[in-house]
Design goal:
The chain is an all-alpha fold and about 425 residues long. It is about 70% helix and about 0% strand. The protein has 16 helices and no strands. The longest helix is centred in the N-terminal third of the chain and has 32 residues.
Length: about 425
Amino acid sequence: MDSHSAPAHAPAHLLDPAGFAAKWTKKTVPLAVVGAVLALAGSFLSVKGGDSFGKQFGFSYLQSFMFFLSLCLGGLFLTIVHHLFDANWSVPVRRVNENLACLAPYLGVLFIPILVLAPSIYPWMQIHPPSSDPALLAKDPLFTPGGWYGISIALFLLWTFLSFQLRRNSVAQDADGAASHTRKMRFYAAWGVVAFGFSLTMGAILWMKGLEHQWFSTMYGVYYFAGSVWTTLATLYLLTLVLKRSGPLAQVVGRKQFHDIGTLFFAFTVFYAYIHFSQYFIIWNGGMPEETFYYVQREQGSWWGIGMLIVFGHFVIPFLSLLRIDAKLTLPVMIPICFWAWLMHFCDMSFNVMPIHRPAGFQLTIGDIGCWLFLAGVLSTLWLKSYAKNAAYPVKDPRLGEAMGVHFYDAVETSGGAAKASK
């Protein structure tokens, strides 16, 4: 389709990442301010019964925090996979993922409210003595205050180190084009993918699964991973489209990038459904009270409706919409589906976090909306500033030419043909 074909020549002012960032920052900063006001006001208004402000705000904040953490970790995973497979198609959009991954230290700072409010959020921290609960004792020392706080801080340090090393070498290559940077990025990706898998699983267990410490699931880390990458791919599609139309990626992004992002998005639609169904089916088939109570609780009240919405909205609708091969390049299909993915992921995070706080059913409060808008505004502003500091794409990556459809063997064949013609 014509909207995905790169222009031969684009005005120079459209290719300025700083100008793009300045334009959008004017919108993201007010978004963060409005979100902060709504989050605080909504949490105060939602206080009722024996619940404290800290508990109301803590659950709303945790729900939105896990949503945006998934975008950071999804960007880190896509960057790692790019280097592991020596991909060429994703070179023009790699800087987008690198800067998503480099939100890790800022998310570490934004995690402070959860660190402070953890005793109000996590019921296991209120059990005294811990030895009185066999399920909690079995998870010692992971589910102890020292273990929980220490590992939480270590996870953000790991993600920060890995993401910044990958971006540091990527930016350094823009200056000298040295192949040594490519080898270093492959080195970090090689051990980073293992560290990423373990650390993401640990984070999901500590911060979401830990809300119900009695529950057991060996698939929970993969479940959060699948939803994270799925949502990140939807975000990447929209960001790439905006960056292409605004100018920074106008000359390097084409049909191939949009099609491949859409194809991966379709693949993770199926993968997420497979993982979520497998987790449910194994627990249902086993029929162990230590496991079944989790889903029994999520069949009460309107949580049943949210569960059905996840089944059909997280899988059936995207699956059928993306089934045609040309759907990945059809913007009237892809743009609504990408926004729909954000809504479904928010429902998914609420389905995991909120039933313990609101057992009667799903509620969307002003505090919930405010926390989401606050984190969206802050992280968008930080991403824009980070993106504006360097080139919009890896300008001297050895695979950039291939990503744009220029191959070395084409040049050799062309020159060889010209030589034969001259003879």
